[in-house]
Sequence to fold (1348 residues):
Amino acid sequence: MKVEPLQYGPSRREFLQRCAGGLGSIALWHLMDSEGRTATRARRVTDPAPLQPRVPKIAPEAKNVIFLFMAGGPSQLDLFDPKPELKRWEGQPLPHSLTQHLDLAFIKPTAKIWASPQDFCARGNCGMEISDALPHLATCVDDICLVRSMITDQINHHPGQLMMNCGVSMVGRPSMGAWVNYGLGSESQDLPGFVVLSSGGGTSAGSANWGNGFLPSSYQGVPFRSTGDPVLYLSNPPGMSRRQQRARLDVIRDLNEQRFLHTGDAEIASRISSYELAFRMQLAAPGLLDISKESRQTLDLYGINKEASKSFGTNCLLARRLVERGVRFVQLFQKGWDAHSNLNKNLKRQCGITDQPTAALLKDLKQRGLLESTLVIWGGEFGRTPMVENRQPGRPDSLGRDHHRLAFSLWMAGGGIKGGHVFGRSDDLGFKVVEDPVHVHDLHATILHCLGLDHEELTYRHQGRDFRLTDVAGKVVRKMLV
Amino acid sequence: MTIQGVIAACILLLGTSTDQTTAKPAASPSPSSNKQVRFTNDIAPILRHHCFSCHAGTKQSGGLRLDQRKAALDGGDSGPVIRPGNSSGSRLIHLVTGTTPGLRMPLSGKSLTSRQVGLLRDWIDQGAHWPEVATSDPSNSGRARKADIHWAFLPVVRPPVPEVENTSWPRNPIDAFVLAKLEAQDIEPSPEAEPGTLIRRLSLDLVGLPPSRVGTSRFPGAGHTDVYERMVDQLLDSEHYGEKWARHWLDLARYADSDGYETDGPRPNAWRYRQWVIEAFNSNLPFDQFTIEQLAGDLILHPTIEQKVATGFNRNTLTNREGGMDLEMLRIERVMDRTDTLGTVWLGLTLGCASCHDHKYDPISQRDYYQLFAFFNSAVEVNIEAPLAGEMGPYLRGKPEYDRKRRELLAQYKVAGLQGEWEKNTLEAANNPNAGGDWILAWEILAVDFDGGQDILRLVPSRRTWKQRDRMTDHFLKWYGIVAGEERVKELKFKELRDKLKSLSEKYPALSEAQTMTEDLNPPKSHLLIRGNYRQPGPEVHTNTPAVMPPLPTGPEPPRLRLARWLVSPENPLVARVTVNRLWQELFGTGLVKTSENFGLRGDPPSHPQLLDWLASEFVATNWDTKKMLKLMVESAAYRQSSRVREPLQGRDPDNRLLARQNRLRLPAELIRDSALSVSGLLDPAVGGPSIYPPQPPSVGELAYENQWNESQGKDRYRRGLYIYFKRTGPYPQLVAFDSPDSLTVCSRRQRSTTPLQALNLLNDPVFVEAAQALATRVLREAPGSFEAQIDHAFRLCLARSPTASENHRLIEYYKRSAIALEQNPNQVDALFPPQGVEGIDRQQAAIWVGISSTLLNLDEFITRE
Fold:
């Protein structure tokens, strides 16, 4: 057959059919292919509906994730991993055999052991021991799985945060939230699939923590801002009412449609859909952010009435509201855990900010029946040393701890995770993992598994090879699962 | 049974199946196709796509590997699978056609098409010719195995321009290659784009701005060849040409204005390199020279300042100033980044894979990697004064007075004594690294916050340059608190002094500086790093080029300079191909090799291999003349085609790889901004200079580690997007929304996504709102009269065409509705159209026009090059 030029474009009827369902109908062929590999061959950058929800292969326990990221590296020895043995060795350096190949950021390998001044006691029905610095979390231990055997590869903040959030300490890789949206799409048709909420200032790795790396930018985290527009440029320009905005969008849509009929380029259909989603976001965001209709009881629960916990508490409440609206991945960033000095003061402040809202989030999700389908993760990029960092000699209240990657703690709850469970063990000094090590890659594999994604099959072809969140490692930690 | 076992069983079974086939002709494999088959073009891609995942490299299911000539012909555990001259007796053919029920290779993935099987049969019947390729290093010949079959490592041979039936269509040889392929598929090319579309396309592609004069005039005979060619020449001569093409190169150079990593501090001199790139494009510096100067400009005999500035290419690596970093690790990371970037930019290879192990797919060993690494391992970073024209005179005139005033200030705050003591103690700590404490910290901060600071401290003050002296004092004033305590610094009023020094220096003219590379006089040895770990050095290595490629020329010049010359020598099979492919990509949306960053085995094969080679050889033959190459491309009939989608072809060629039309391309982030500013008349077209800080919501900076956004005042905020200060941890939001690369690593091709955030950005970002207001003013000023005339003018400005009747109709309707809305809410007029004192314009009409202008700026067509 000879194909002549000038046989342009589909008919108007076809076009309207393709656009009618907004995002929906265009995207049917993008459902995860039967081979299971979420191949880039099937899904392209020009995908008109990259966030169309997709059904995972494994039956998922969790539908959504709330990751409470504690930037700076909270001290596991003072919060989650009691080590009475440290008292015995306090003031002495670690044996040379332990420290000879040790990476340390600031202190010397000869730094002396410092026992935690915090008290620990058994909590809940499960008897999990956690620090008295976390009185609110103490009431939720039967719902959490505490991992005391986390390991990472990095001892500096920027690479460490990239490792925890993107699976590799190198820049340019997609973040976990981006991978999850790439794998599952978003249930929400009027909010982004990956929302970022910050408190306490910017983090070391900045926007790379929620970047899309080489994935299409539809998957990047969208920061909701605490000042000005919650989503950048959400408000109409001065003088433009919602009605006028709608009229403007209508005329844009109609002219775009005419251009589509002229050029036949399906990209235009995708552009039209994106404007409709933008408009729905404009409508939905104010309702999402308006917490005035939440009960007094709820606001009190989250500590929103207290100055210290107001900001983080509001973000926790928003996280629940986002999950209720089908947002797939919500990540909170709380800066300020990097206690090289004044650790006690730091813990008091940071726990004052985070403890009550965190526990409130767990309770609130649970009472609303959302915890089962929501995976909550609490943790930072690494832990802190059993050795002391002493920057102001002579002032005992100024002691701190350095970065430590060989053993730290993190907890998860909901979404297929076993509650009231302690997993893994570090040695008596809290220096090294001695039982059930969980490397960051294993954590990622497990998180993806809870969402119904096989970490080895969630791949994206880039620069000639298939990339994964878990790089070339990672195994699902089944003992943490229900 | 393991997979290997299954395959071995398949192969064993096949022995009997062959016999069965002869007995049962019905199960015979597909017939051969009777054409002359070439291994590299026809066979290698089939093997690569369908067989390599189980039969290549270390994966040798059934003992069979098909990526190596000898091994493939030898066969697997159960004997040969290829019998040259006898395809029906070759088990490979039976295997891929599935003559035994239930056994068909490949076991997973798509089966071969009958055409592919036909090619395999012909190839075997024609003798299974498998070319061998000479390699540069005989001792390494084993590793040349994949080069045997991979086209990109073969030398560029200028192919003859093919004959075509339709001799009236081609305008130059490019078209003959494109048309030959279309004719083979019985497809006609598209007609030429409409004149307005074509002019707009040309203007956006060559200078990155919409055509400027189309608003007021018709397009006289744009279809005429000479008019078009004159337009091409004019655009290539425009100084905006350098800006457009510099931006593409800056993606490759991972250019940014900040360090990256945690502190992400500013790099106030980074723009000086950007300036060099713009000027290099504008002066049409031949690409070979362009390459040499960026990689080794410092090593050219008697280099000019500009040639040194060019080496800033390799200063765009990230710097981590986070406390407690291992400096050697950071240095090695930067050297690796330089090596990897060289691979992507010039060789189109993913060299980085070989930093930890031999490359899994490409013929690059780990040793090859570290031999390339060694070229950069001996280079060190240095900042130099790089004055622009006109800077030196005022600087020299002001300097004596500045120096005197600075000395007076330092004396007034009694700095000298304290600084001397601080230097002494810091040095002492440096010599006693186990001492610990704050003085060691002071020593370490010197390395982190002051490039070269430790070395300078070791110099006695009298041997330091004045610049080093000043810099050391500034550093001391900034960091004295670490050892002395903040109380003491408060007492000394150092903060006040620093502010005074800062405002003093701002009063006097300064020289521009540049970040450059130079050779280390005392270079460290280079080792193969085991698993890429700098703490596990393996055997020592020396500078050399990969064994699969031509050898490094010998001679008296330093190795890094010879490496640069080697890249652009005519024998190099990759550099010209990779470079012309990227130019093609920028003009057609997709390269002839789609994976423009990867020409290796896992990259895509070229859609038009002959055309690629012809262009590469033409590029070298014209002395790497970039403007000439672009002119050739944009003057081709292929480029000038309409971009309208041809539905009947969509099924056959959905990605338009055959080039039966042009492509519609969403503009890059910067060009969207530039277009809006340009059509509205706001654009400040000044070329070059330091970066700018257009207004952005305060909440953007709050999420970065440190907020350093000092909003630009005056017309600076209306400058082109490539001048926007690029902060790596918190880039300008409009750039992020429209897929600007993160500039952390090299980017060879940008994504083009479509997201709701883009819609919000164009609808509501004050920059675009202001552009809509300015466009409203411009239209009403320049086209007073009927609404139709105004719409026509606005369309021409924004889209380089007149509206259709139905577009006109729809906009009139919108106009009327807006008029009614504003009559009901007259107080909105001032909000929509705030400019005051605009003479001769009806404010209500202007307010309506803001909405119409904004509509035009939001059209898909406006942000698309058609």
About this structure: The radius of gyration of chain B is 32 Å. Confidence is low (pLDDT under 50) at residues 1-29, 134-147 of chain B. Chain B touches chain A through 109 residues (CB under 8 Å). DSSP finds 36 helices and eight strands in chain B.
